Amino acid sequence: MAILVLEDVSAAYSNSPEILKGLSLSLERGEQIAIIGRNGEGKTTLLKVAAGLLAPTRGKVRHFSSSNPAILLQNPRQQLVCSTVREEIEYTLRLNALDDKTVARVAQDRLQQFDLEHASEQHPLKLSGGQQQKVALAALLCREPELLLLDEPDAYLDGASRREFRSFFSGQVRAATIWIVSRVSELPEGMKAMRLANGVLSSLDVDEK
Ligand SMILES: Nc1ncnc2c1ncn2[C@@H]1O[C@H](COP(=O)(O)OP(=O)(O)OP(=O)(O)O)[C@@H](O)[C@H]1O
Ligand SMILES: [Mg+2]
């Protein structure tokens, strides 16, 4: 059963040429796909359209989930709003109408899960880019989204940190996911991948991987 369907979607910013040009995509419940494209091909635009943040100029975007899609922005600074990492997590949990005691307990679990305990009392914007991405993702996952839209979610991580992040993701996250990358070397292993080029999606050749 599909959770997200894009039908012949075109998109543009005001006074700009078309960026998405009649693009179609169907994402099943629980399906996780990666989308790769060169800089400026419209990957972020595609995620914004899929999230409902940008209206398509043509075509339809259909959601079939009971909750709002969770989007991790390419620049996590744009979605970190609290004064400490712990508050950032607690804030999202409170939106789920949990009582204070449960909020504190679940926040502590999340901090441990993401290896963020040591940073829990720091200001999110003082962390490294990779840590900011982890905080933003941890907060999003507290909403238990059915659809997760990730714009280069581990672009600031490298080596062991990236491997850790990815093994956490594949072990813990079951939500339907679109995971954007800009380089073949960043494609998550084992994930179906598509290429965004010239405003449309196509399957990625095996020898491109
Ligand atoms: N808010 C905006 N207003 C006008 N043009 C925009 C806006 N955001 C992006 N663009 C333009 O739309 C095109 C696609 O941008 P987009 O950010 O979607 O690409 P991208 O594939 O995500 O790039 P990157 O790999 O650099 O993240 C680019 O030419 C960009 O300059
Ligand atoms: Mg982008």
Structure description:
29% of the residues lie in helices and 26% in strands. The chain is built from five helices and nine strands. The strands form two sheets. It has a six-stranded mixed sheet with strand order 5-6-7-3-8-9, sandwiched between helices. It has a three-stranded antiparallel sheet with strand order 2-1-4, with helices on one face. It is of the alpha/beta class and 209 residues long. It has a domain at 76-144. Residues 43-44, 74, 151 line the site of magnesium ion.
| Tally of separate helices | 5
Q: How much strand?
A: 25-35%
Protein structure class: alpha/beta
State the order of secondary-structure elements, H for helix, E for strand: EEEHEEHHHEHEEE
Q: Gyration radius, to the nearest Å?
A: 17 Å
Determine the fraction of residues in helical runs and give it as a percent range. 25-40%
Task: Please state the oligomeric state of the protein chains shown.
Answer: single chain
Unreliable stretches, pLDDT < 50, 5 or more residues?
A: none
Number of beta-strand segments: 9
Features:
binds magnesium ion, 209 residues, alpha/beta, 6-stranded mixed sheet, 3-stranded antiparallel sheet, binds adenosine-5'-triphosphate, 29% helix
List the helices and strands and how they pair.
Layout: E1 2-11, E2 20-28, E3 32-36, H1 43-51, E4 58-63, E5 70-72, H2 85-95, H3 100-113, H4 129-141, E6 147-151, H5 159-172, E7 176-181, E8 192-197, E9 200-203
Parallel strand pairs: 3-7, 3-8, 5-6, 6-7
Antiparallel strand pairs: 1-2, 1-4, 8-9
Helix pairs in contact: 2-3, 2-4
Adenosine-5'-triphosphate is lined by residues 13, 16, 19, 37, 39-45, 74, 182.
